[in-house]
Write a structure and sequence with these properties.
mainly alpha; 72% helix
């Protein structure tokens, strides 16, 4: 795995003028491109949540390409089993859905280094966030290989994808290497979930179609639930800052 040395990356952890920005001084065109790209990715991901119930029972292949969601991959595999979608297309769409935005966070780590990792880890550098940073920001050969493995295993619970991708950029992993490792992981996970749906077949199709039949209420519940969770988290953080 080709990497840069710590000295080569000195400029990538610039002192910050504002705690909520990952760069110091005047932003370059690359800074602005990457920063707005990250926010567009987050906005896109949020906007996709209400659409999932509408598409999972009608066009799960399109849904997995748009979201990279495991549930969509499983449904697509089931649709392929009953002859309503090509299996190869279901696998290809899942791989694309998982990989399409990963490079944005790799670029963020490349540009801003540990500053970006701290933003992604969360505002309170204690507990779980502190352990994540301790694991991902120590520049040793073992840590670089660990980050490479984490890129492959990004869908494992407790492995935060954006943080891992930014870490890969920060330690100097080349873009072709990063994309290759990301492709291995995406293909493995897509094959697993698509194969699961293919094995289940018609029952999974019926479940997906039932979800779509109730899409209006499910979408409303997702929107309301997301707003409630965000409000509760904001109040919790404000209370912690006051205490």
């Amino acid at each position: 795995m080709t990497t840069e040395t710590q000295r080569d990356r000195v400029g990538k952890s610039r002192p910050l003028d504002k705690s909520w920005l990952p760069w110091g001084g005047a932003p370059s065109s690359k800074d602005l491109f990457c920063w707005y790209g990250i926010w567009l990715v987050f906005a896109y991901s949020f906007a996709m949540w209400p659409l999932k119930p509408w598409l999972i029972g009608t066009n799960p292949v399109l849904l997995e390409a748009m979201t990279g969601a495991q549930s969509a991959m499983t449904a697509a595999g089931a649709f392929a089993r009953v002859g309503e979608a090509p299996l190869a297309l279901a696998v290809a769409a899942g791989i694309f859905g998982m990989m399409k935005f990963a490079w944005v966070f790799w670029l963020a780590g490349r540009l801003w280094g540990e500053n970006m990792l701290r933003l992604l880890a969360g505002p309170a550098q204690e507990g779980r966030a502190k352990r994540r940073l301790g694991l991902l920001t120590r520049d040793t050969p073992a840590r670089r290989w660990l980050i490479g493995a984490a890129v492959v295993l990004e869908k494992v619970p407790m492995v935060p994808g954006p943080l891992v991708f930014a870490s890969a950029g920060w330690v100097g992993m080349r873009l072709p290497t990063f994309l290759f490792l990301n492709l291995i992981g995406a293909a493995a996970w897509t094959g697993l979930y698509t194969g699961l749906g293919y094995a289940i077949g018609q029952p999974a199709v019926e479940i997906a179609e039932t979800i779509t039949d109730q899409a209006v209420w499910i979408s409303l519940a997702v929107i309301v639930g997301g707003l409630v969770v965000q409000t509760a988290m904001s109040r919790f953080r404000a209370a912690r800052r006051r205490s």
